[in-house]
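Annotated sample (chain length 327).
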Amino acid sequence: MPRPLMLGSLVATLALGHGLCAAQPYPAKPVRIIISSAPGGPVDVGMRGMTDALRQELGQPVIIENLGAADGIIAAQTFVRAVADGYTLLHTSAGPISLNPVIHPKLPYDPQADFTPVAMTGQFNSVMIVNAAVPVSSFRELLALAKAKPGTLSWGAAGTNGTSNMYAEWFRHTLGIDFYNVLYKNNLQTLAATASGEVQGTLFALGGATGQAKAGKVKILAAISEQRLAAMPNLPTIKEEGVDLVIRNWVGTFARSGTPRDIIERWNRMLSKTIADKTYIQKVLEPLGFEAAAPSGEPVAAFAQFLTRDKALYVRIKNEAKLKAGE
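Output written by the structure step:
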């Protein structure tokens, strides 16, 4: 074969090979999911409970990476460095997405510009709890006791951007109720501290709180919800107890902005299918205290609209609680 013709054939073969690689169907390799919480927490366990189903759908391994420190900033910052190809996703609660932009003046990421919502996978059924030795039987009584003894009842808060801290600051500035606020690295630590009596109260997902209540270590006083929980119909809501603020945390999955739309839609369908599975609901969601409340399992657009409303809630909290930037 003449040399020019041979070279031309080689170039054509290489080009064809490159085209085949480029056209390789997604996913062609393992997918990494960054979780913005510590191992063993509700956000982590909820996603790990989905990984078997996701592996089957994808035909590839799903690798979990926990980066649960610094108010979720480390997880988000790591995620923002990822290529927008669908091989790295972020699974997180509201803090890094809705709250951090309100509280922290200088973030190394912009959730609105850098992240694309994929699907909400659940909302927390959270409850207000106290150590079993605290002499109250209702949340209204706890607030009255704290108001009568300013700064003496301790409250466990998971970092500055945790829902527990938001409530503590809101109580102080809107109700004139001053708890002694003790900051921990994560929610699991606040639950352990309340159960041991290191602090008097906090809030936590219903699943974990119920376990400690059955062990006689904490008392569950109120549900953080608009309506009473189906799992505990006799438990009053915080609104019934005189608190006009419902912060219901959520969990969802995000892709990098610029990720192909078909990949985002595929993940939305996979996650929605998984959280609708009865076995997953019974073995994972319900024990954790999660509920697949709207817009969980709904299209991407519904999740995006929810995020706009959620951020507005935290702007309200910041204004009413008089939080300073970076607090």
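Annotation: The CA atoms of residues 172 and 178 lie 5 Å apart.
Annotation: The radius of gyration is 23 Å.
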